[in-house]
Structures are given as structure tokens and as C-alpha cells.
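Exercise 7b. C-alpha cells:
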């Protein structure tokens, strides 16, 4: 399986972003890439290959392909297929993504739907209504224009339009009334999905309120069900995962304690130190010193 790196598609290493409209004129075998891809079907229809699945895509469909997820295309005989592609390195858009972390509809669209498409073999993607397509295309065209012409400070314009696109798609998703997390077959599956999703996105500022909303439950009901199944609250579970990941980073890197705390999702160093000592009996610096002494 082919794997594509940023440099093969992005010619500005200081700003790894591209926006373009492309007719799909040949079949594309499964491949992976280092960047995130937003795909909007501008015209026609075709078959989207996703891991070992195949599903029909049509005009108005828009969906996310995250890094290292296999996907491809297969044309339908006599049927055109044109897509708008937005590709970018998410590490260069952390600020924009963090701004959107408090928007539940964005979390649903950008994180939950791709996660469930991969985990539960659900081919569901959002289809933008006809009245919304003109505005979505206008934003996409502005991104294509900025990337193609690259006038002074085009990077700032791209960031502004990316935020505009994120917000607009979140509104479209909210209007669609989709709750992808609730598609689980039963309560056990729902809680398993929440746990797996949290393991993948533990560093994101996911709140109890957001997870409750994603599951279409009140905070009280979600907390009760989660603790019944897992034996701890969601916040305890999320922090447990963050602390385990921090422990690995203390063992394998020489990064500063503050940097490690931020990387795993703790913004308050004092709180991180207290939680780490509560779980492991020593402070992060004491743990690192002891681990390296024993390993040497």
C-alpha cells in the first residue's frame, strides 16, 4: 500500500496546506498519508474505498480522512466524480483545532464520525443540503484561490477561511441532527465506543458535558452508566489514560515536565503533579529520576 508524505503534495514546508478541485479520472487504490484530508464531492458519484469497506459517495457528501487511515476511490462507468480536497498537517493548525474543541457538533463531525466509520464499519458521512452547498463551495473556492495565488500573508487568509469552514460545517452537522455515537447497538457498545474514542483523543479537551451530549444523555445519566460499566467516572478514566501516557513519555523522552503535561492534556502543572503523585506515589520528576537510575 502506498503511503504519501507531506512533501509529495505540499511545496511550502513552513505551511503544509493545499486546496484544490480534482476530477477523479482513474481508480485510486488504497493508500495512506501523513496529513488530514477533507473531501467534498463537488459533482457526480463514485465508490469510496475505506479500509476494507466500499460505499457510495455522491454530490454534497463531505467527510474527513485522518492521518494513516487507508482509503481510495473507484469510478462508476459513465459517471463523473469531482472532489474538492483540503489537505493539511494538523500540527500546524493546532490553534484552530483547539478553538473548535468546545463545539460539540465539530467534535462529532471531525473526530467522532471518522472514529466510528473506522471502528463500527458504518459508512455514514454528512451530506450537505442543497441550500448549504453554495456557501460551502464559496468557502472552499476561497481556500483554493488563496492557495493558488499565494499573495502576501496568504497563510493568515487560509487560517481564517479554515476556521470559517470548520464553523460552517459544524452548523451543517448540527442541523443534520446526527448523533453518531448513539448508533451503538446497546449500552455496553456505547460505553466501549466512548472508552476507545477517549483512548485515541485523550489529549483533547473533552469535557463530561461534551461526551454526555455526544451520547445524547444527561450528564447524570452518562456518569451513572459510565461508572457502572467502567468502575470510575469519565473524568477519572480520562485522567488515568493521560497519566499513563505521561509516564511513558517520562520513560522514553527528555522533555520538560510542563511540556509532557501539556502534550497529554493537562494545562495546569500543579494539578498534573498532584494527580501523578496520587496515581503513582511519586512526583513526575521523582519517577523519571528513579526510572532512569534503574535503567542505567
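Sequence design result:
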Amino acid at each position: 500500500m502506498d503511503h504519501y508524505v507531506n512533501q509529495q503534495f505540499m511545496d511550502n514546508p513552513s505551511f503544509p496546506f493545499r486546496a484544490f478541485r480534482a476530477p477523479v479520472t482513474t481508480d485510486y487504490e488504497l493508500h495512506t498519508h501523513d496529513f488530514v484530508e477533507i473531501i467534498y464531492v463537488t459533482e457526480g458519484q463514485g465508490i469510496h474505498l475505506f479500509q476494507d469497506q466500499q460505499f457510495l459517495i455522491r454530490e454534497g457528501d463531505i467527510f474527513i480522512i485522518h492521518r494513516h487511515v487507508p482509503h481510495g476511490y473507484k469510478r462508476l462507468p459513465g459517471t463523473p466524480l469531482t472532489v474538492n480536497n483540503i489537505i493539511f498537517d494538523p500540527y500546524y493548525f493546532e490553534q484552530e483545532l483547539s478553538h473548535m474543541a468546545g463545539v460539540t457538533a465539530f467534535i462529532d463531525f471531525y473526530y467522532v464520525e471518522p472514529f466510528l466509520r473506522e471502528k463500527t464499519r458504518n459508512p455514514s458521512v454528512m451530506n450537505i443540503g442543497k441550500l448549504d452547498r453554495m456557501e460551502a463551495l464559496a468557502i472552499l473556492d476561497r481556500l483554493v484561490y488563496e492557495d493558488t495565488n499565494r499573495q502576501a500573508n496568504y497563510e493568515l487568509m487560509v487560517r481564517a477561511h479554515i476556521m470559517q469552514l470548520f464553523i460552517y460545517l459544524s452548523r451543517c452537522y448540527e442541523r443534520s441532527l446526527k448523533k453518531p455515537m448513539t448508533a451503538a447497538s446497546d449500552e455496553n457498545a456505547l460505553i466501549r465506543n466512548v472508552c476507545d474514542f477517549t483512548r485515541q483523543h485523550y489529549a483533547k479537551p473533552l469535557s463530561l458535558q461534551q461526551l454526555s451530549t455526544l451520547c445524547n444523555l444527561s450528564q447524570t445519566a452518562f456518569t451513572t452508566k459510565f461508572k457502572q460499566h467502567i468502575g470510575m467516572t469519565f473524568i477519572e478514566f480520562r485522567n488515568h489514560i493521560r497519566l499513563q501516557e505521561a509516564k511513558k513519555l517520562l520513560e522514553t523522552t527528555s522533555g520538560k515536565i510542563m511540556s509532557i503535561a501539556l502534550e497529554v492534556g493537562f494545562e495546569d502543572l500543579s494539578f498534573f503533579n498532584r494527580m501523578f503523585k496520587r496515581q503513582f506515589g511519586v512526583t513526575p520528576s521523582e519517577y523519571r529520576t528513579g526510572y532512569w537510575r534503574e535503567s542505567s
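Instructor comment: The first strand starts at residue 2 and ends at 4. The CA atoms of residues 181 and 215 lie 6 Å apart.
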